[in-house]
Design goal:
Elements lengths: L29 H4 L2 H8 L4 H11 L10 E14 L2 E14 L3 E5 L6 H8 L7 E6 L2 E2 L5 H11 E5 L10 H6 L9 H14 L15 H13 L5 E5 L7 H16 L4 E5 L3 H4 L4 E6 L2 E2 L1
Parallel strand pairs: 3-8, 3-9, 6-7, 7-8
Antiparallel strand pairs: 1-2, 1-4, 4-5, 9-10
Helix pairs in contact: 7-8, 8-9
């Protein structure tokens, strides 16, 4: 397997040593239970959402001088052809993300956010430029190497959960491990550990239709972390959830970043979600602002 760095999924997962999470709803830290600043803003005639958006805009990219760059894009362009007309979605984009960062990516619909996530996750290749992720130059890798890269380094979280309705929560989480050389017993142990980490040990035998939206997304997060990935990419992970369920998911992502040092790149339209990240970037017409 040429050109792929770092450990394989068969190695011992850091998640095995995760402390068990209670089966009750994830406890939301006090600052997020009631946004007291919203009341003050309302009294001053300022909308809470606008205030949160301004806070998000003011945050700068995460920088740890001791951390290495884990995502490095230079002059990346992505062009699609629609009929006979080329459509440039990413236009000479340059981006550095350091290991251990939790970054939010915001921008209007059609600005290229999901395309950028797909490139970083190895689901697509740039038309031009360099895309280096976890020490791998994605633009030069074969389809097989990209598949192995995703299995080793990337955990996906989607807005629509993308769970298999005919599989239980445990079986959904175990799916990515079917591509590894782990035994059936080891696969089940890892899936159980991942579900405990997201507080769903009492829902392992439940099917998606038997779960709430927040619980479905937690199953999806367990599936994303079961391989102990280097990077978690989340595309609107709270977009289909109510505020309480969204806060639970954001608290869980913060835990994965702060306690387990996962690098997270999250696309969101929600300023409150972006506020949980350590940095916010804005993409517009294929360029970072």
């Amino acid at each position: 397997m040429s050109g792929i760095e770092s450990r394989g999924p068969e190695s011992e997962s850091n998640l095995v040593n995760m402390p068990e999470t209670p089966t009750t709803e994830v406890d939301v830290p006090e600052p997020y239970r009631k946004n007291e600043g919203d009341g003050a803003a309302a009294k001053a005639g300022e909308k809470p959402a606008e205030k949160a958006n301004e806070k998000a805009k003011g945050k700068t990219a995460y920088r740890d001088t001791n951390a290495k760059t884990i995502i490095e894009l230079k002059g990346v362009t992505k062009t699609f052809v629609r009929g006979k007309e080329p459509l440039t979605v990413l236009d000479g984009l340059t981006l550095d993300v350091h290991e251990g960062a939790f970054e939010a990516l915001m921008g209007p619909s059609g600005s290229g956010k999901s395309t950028l996530l797909n490139l970083i996750a190895g689901l697509d290749r740039p038309t031009s430029g360099m895309a280096k992720v976890a020490g791998n130059d994605l633009s030069t890798m074969s389809d097989g190497d990209l598949a192995r890269f995703r299995s080793r380094h990337i955990g996906f979280i989607f807005q629509a959960y993308n769970l298999m309705p005919v599989l239980t929560a445990l079986e959904n989480v175990e799916l990515p491990l079917l591509l590894t050389k782990l035994s059936s017993a080891d696969r089940r142990k890892r899936a159980q550990t991942a579900l405990r980490a997201v507080g769903l040990e009492d829902r392992m035998a439940h099917y998606p239709r038997q779960l709430s939206g927040g619980q479905e997304q937690r199953v999806a997060i367990a599936r994303a972390i079961v391989n102990d990935p280097t990077i978690i990419v989340a595309d609107e992970p709270t977009g289909d959830l109510d505020r309480k369920a969204a806060d639970d998911i954001l608290t869980l992502l913060t835990k994965l970043n702060e306690e387990f040092k996962k690098t997270i790149l999250m696309v969101t339209h929600d300023p409150s979600a972006a506020e949980r990240a350590t940095a916010t970037r804005h993409l517009n017409k294929g360029k970072l602002e």
